[in-house]
Design brief:
about 10% strand, 6-stranded mixed β-sheet, single chain, about 55% helix, about 625 residues
């Protein structure tokens, strides 16, 4: 270690160098904030140093390198080097006038990145995650310079690239380690304490370290298998970046790099030769894999994998199992429901390893679902479901069970038709916040604030006249003219004229609103105090934004909003759409009213669908 060299180098001295980014390094990941902070720091230094001695300099964090033939292997500092390269790319024309050229960056497993950095094409930002972050950084640089004085580019680049004989420049801490030192060990020690470095990046370093592979030929070319693992790693991460896949497996976006969900499955199956209490350690996954690679841990229920390639095959097998569940229509819905209810993917994975055959696995999943909703044996299944569904009441501590029952109703309805390819959108469901929405308005939820009361009346007027008026206007002339133009105004039109009168009265009268509110509910048959309106027969799933946007509106207004959302392609759960379109009603009658018989038919459909789904006679259809 004594031969390691620590020096200060101006950025100018790096311009003739070539840097090599090895496979164990993560890709470029600096955020816009980090890029802007660097630019601000250099600008602040430049302004403060104008009256300083030439020896003054701004110092960047270390760049740790190791000599590698004609280039430098970057052990640490890739993010800073790449960011400076992007800045130089943006300022390359001015740099050329000063006789300055950029240094070179090449990649062991990302050959396209080197070419992309030379000419950053923002139209290709979605090709891969590296291009995305590079384009975002370039955009941040461009926006930052647009905010500066027009002539500032020259001052900035002079500060960035001044040699030591001119001074007032930018330098890096240059740390040149001996060639016989393992760079992966240095990389790990340097980064283990940094928050940005994740478990997956450290585990990737373990897999891609050169010592795991032989050479493909006498010229010392990188092992083809090493490149394949690096590419497969990126393929898994890319697949898990699709939210429909991710939110099938998770309720939240808990990992910086989503491949960690696969690595965590394996880490939790590893048994340490010397038991360690490290489950709570932030780097538990990395520590587990590190012990596995050293031979100090074994994988449960698996033949021992002695090589990095064999261990990687196990990672792929775990991912392929998750992918198979995602692609399989029935497993997707059953597992997706259980994950939503708090069952861990690790638990499901463990159970699957002990169950032989698809039929038994489906039976197990259905039993787990039954146990989430009910606390007794099946017995007379329909009678049990009917009894417990009838006992659920909104606002009485049953909201979680009601939400679970309605979610399962949606899933069971989809699975009941084996010929459809509809899938429940767990990503939309989990990324939003979902309310139990009353189908028929509830008097106890009458708007109380004047602004909410005004909005409620406006929604009735918009529904009745088919005219929308901007929220911030107090001019209701269009609505009044539309209503008065009717050849024979209906009772509803008369109520709307009263609504306009209430809206135009200054100051606004909540007392007048309350009287009119009851009359409008009576008109739509929604004013009965005796009807049970907190049962599942009067509830559906709806996202909170849509729900709260119209509050306790009358049924026809809610129905119209649901139709608008569905027409626009906004995710509306199947059964929510069906109930507002009255598909479950045996005698639909007037679509503008939600009657007692509609609620009865709807609840009967829920009970029948859950009975079919949780029964034992549908295994052939589900498997």
């Amino acid at each position: 270690m004594s031969n390691n060299q620590l020096t200060l180098k101006p950025i100018n001295d790096l311009l003739g160098e070539s840097f090599f980014i090895p496979a164990y390094q993560r890709g470029y990941r600096w955020t816009e904030r980090q890029v802007v902070e660097l630019l601000n720091d250099i600008r602040d230094f430049q302004q403060q140093s104008e009256n300083s001695k030439k020896e003054t300099f701004y110092c960047l964090q270390p760049v740790v390198v190791r000599k590698r033939q004609q280039s430098w292997e970057v052990v640490d500092g890739q993010q800073r080097l790449t960011t400076i390269f992007i800045i130089l790319t943006y300022l390359k024309d001015i740099a050329a006038l000063l006789g300055k050229q950029r240094y070179q960056i090449s990649y062991e497993t990302r050959p396209n990145c080197a070419q992309f950095l030379q000419e950053i094409d923002e139209s290709r930002s979605n090709e891969n995650i590296d291009f995305y972050h590079i384009c975002a950084a370039k955009k941040a640089v461009e926006n930052w310079f647009k905010q500066q004085d027009g002539a500032y580019k020259l001052k900035f680049i002079q500060t960035l690239l001044n040699p030591d004989d001119i001074g007032k420049n930018v330098k890096v801490i240059w740390y040149d380690i001996q060639e016989d030192i393992d760079p992966i060990d240095v990389f790990t020690r340097l980064n283990i304490g940094k928050i940005p470095l994740t478990n997956s990046e450290l585990v990737k370093a373990l897999f891609l370290r050169s010592g795991n592979f032989g050479k493909d030929d006498a010229n010392g070319q990188i092992s083809l298998r090493q490149v394949q693992i690096a590419q497969a790693w990126d393929d898994i991460e890319r697949a898990l970046q699709h939210d429909d896949f991710w939110y099938f497996l998770n309720n939240k976006d808990t990992y910086t790099n989503r491949i960690e969900i696969v690595l965590a499955l394996i880490a939790n199956q590893l048994t340490f030769n010397n038991p360690q209490d490290i489950k709570s350690d932030h780097y538990y996954i990395f520590i587990a894999f590190f012990n596995w690679f050293k031979g100090d841990a074994t994988l449960q229920n698996s033949t021992e994998a002695t090589t990095a390639v064999a261990k990687w095959e196990i990672v792929q097998q775990h991912f392929l199992q998750l992918e198979e569940w995602f692609e399989h229509r029935v497993w997707f819905h059953l597992i997706g429901f259980l994950i939503d209810q708090g069952v861990s993917i690790r638990s499901i994975f463990t159970q699957n390893s002990t169950i032989q055959g698809k039929t038994l696995f489906v039976q197990h999943l259905k039993q787990e679902i039954f146990n989430k909703l009910f606390t007794t044996d099946k017995g007379d299944l329909k009678a049990l479901i009917t009894k417990q569904i009838n006992e659920l009441e909104y606002g009485g501590g049953d909201n979680q069970k009601l939400r679970a029952a309605l979610l399962l109703f949606n899933i069971a309805s989809i699975l009941h038709n084996p010929s459809t390819n509809i899938r429940f959108q767990f990503d939309s469901y989990k990324k939003g916040q979902w309310d139990l929405e009353h189908i028929r308005s509830v008097q106890s939820r009458k708007p109380e604030r004047p602004d909410a009361q005004k909005q409620w009346l406006r929604s009735v007027l918009e529904y009745s006249t088919k005219i929308s008026v901007p929220q911030n206007t107090n001019d209701y002339t269009l609505w009044r003219q539309q209503i008065q133009a009717q050849p024979s105004p209906s009772d509803l039109h008369q109520l709307c004229l009263s609504a306009i009168d209430v809206l135009e009265t200054q100051p606004f009268s909540s007392s007048a609103f309350n009287d009119l509110y009851l009359k409008i509910l009576q008109h739509f048959g929604e004013s009965s105090e005796t009807e049970v309106d907190n049962s599942i027969a009067n509830l559906a799933l709806l996202d909170s934004h849509t729900n709260r946007s119209y509050g306790n509106a009358i049924f026809p207004i809610k129905r119209r909003r649901i139709v608008e959302l569905d027409k626009d392609g906004t995710f509306v759960p199947l059964c929510t759409k069906n109930v507002f379109l009255k598909y479950y009603s045996h005698h639909a009658g007037d679509l503008m009213f939600w009657k007692a018989e509609d609620a009865t038919d709807y609840q009967a459909e829920i009970i029948d669908t859950l009975t079919w789904f949780l029964g034992d006679n549908n295994l052939e259809q589900l498997v």
